[in-house]
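Following up on my earlier thread - several people asked me to post the actual chain instead of describing it. Fair enough. Here it is, all 590 residues.
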Amino acid sequence: MSFIRKLPEELISKIAAGEVIERPFSVVKELVENSIDAKAHQIEIDIEEGGRKKIVVLDDGNGMSRGDATLSLERHATSKLPSDDDLYCIKTLGFRGEALPSIAGVSLMTLETTPKEPKEKDPAGDVGIRIEIEGGRILKRTSTSLPVGTRMTVQNLFFNTPARLKFMKSRETEFTHIISWIEAMALSRPETGFVLRHNGKIEIKTEPDREPRMRVRDILGPDIAEFLHPVSLSRSRMSLTGFVTDHRASSTSAKSIFFFVNGRIVRDRTLQHAVLSAYENLLMKHRYPWVILHLEVPPDFVDVNVHPAKSEVRFANGSVVHELVKAGVRGVLGGAETTPSLPRGFVTGSCGTRPPESSLGGTVPDVKLGWVRSVPHNLLNSGVGSDTSSEPFTNPLGSDVRVIGQAHATYLVCETPDKLILIDQHAAHERIGFEKLRRQFEEGGIAKQQLLIPQNFDLRPSQCEILKKYLPDLDRVGLEVEFFGGHTFLLRSIPILLEGTDFVSLIEEIIESLQAFEKLTPLEEKIHEVLETMACHRQVRAGDKLGHEEIAFLLKEMKSTPSSGQCPHGRPSILEISFSEMEKWFKRRL
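Reply from S.P.:
Thanks for posting it. Predicted structure:
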């Protein structure tokens, strides 16, 4: 008795479909790439229920003849590899001939296409063909009067594979994957127009033949486009073009880095390392630049057949590519104008002006400058900083603790009879803010104040989808945000504790913290992380010069705050060194 059997064709098709089609986004990706390869000038994508119910992709590309349309539904049938040798010289986005049969195998699919150069017509004069497929089986072939191009309709995805259907995420999560990819594709193809609709509402609309810088503005917004610097460098038969931002426009996630190799969206460690190496010492830790880079290399320099989704590549000489990218980006940053400017979304609130001199010496930054942070006035109580005398004061931590001063505008230096105490002012104040925010949240909501004039701000389309889902939750953390239309929101109220914060950056960081890899996480599951993000935005920073009363208030707050020895992220905020240990350092005690 044989234990090995040949699988039936229907099961083979389902297995093959599972390798190519993971979720609705996979369908959109394959169909849009087909449209690009067909030299489409305009592509329209209609999504219903996050792609779970219906996906329609319409293009004005070259279309297919009747015979080619039927043949395209066979596995490993493609027009993109005229010969075997072309596998090592791929110039198209697709090449395996797996997409259409894989999609058709797990859905109800309708293919409508009319060729640019028709070779045959039906009696009614129609040259197009319409083919209806269910679970890989062709049900009907008819003629169509569709204009030149192709329309693909996919319904009830995974209707015949319940196990795969069970693992699909929410409509919002599935659509977020789709819109994020369309944003990247639109950045890679400024010559192509894209329209993306979800449940009948336009989410992305870009005109064809757009100038590259304007296309970036269309997708990422004017606040990013303002700080773009063009990149252009060629060497060794390779060319690098695109745009990068300087330190004034950065992100909390590496998702702000877009790479396109020969027009293909890719993720590549070599390219990302090259970019981040170019930004070394130019960005704060855990911040990422906005990067849109197009790398053109000879097809035989790169292998795109190394990943099932074709999202990764392998270079024949990675070190040469790394040097090209690093040199191109670093060369631009070296000459970039980086004069500080007022951050977008900066709300100064009602803070008053501060005295020019701190009681510990040095100039206290003025909040009106915007880009130079001052100590949050409302957090250290009214009148703090008004005492410019150098007289000693009563220390709130106890009579045996004496405040010596501030070192490096970052660390508070104190002493007791037997030890030296160093306090990281930012870490300590961050814990204070976090505990206040958490207490208010647990008691029913974070105290907020209405803005006299609501502040409007724009987000990227993919960010809009996430933020709209969380608008009621944000109100509970003191951020009253209203959807205004398009990609615009209105900020109507802010947490009282966060006066003087760049709220657009804060909201973007909250979006990143709420968006897990595979689902949009409920706020309750992420509330500590959200509050940590908020607390970090309103605290005394390293570099803020503090007066005696400001230090006194901070120490008093520490004394009444739980876990004040660590910041919310777990970093220590207090370090104690005994004088006996110091005496050993100086060999005063053996």
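The radius of gyration is 30 Å. That should answer part of your original question.
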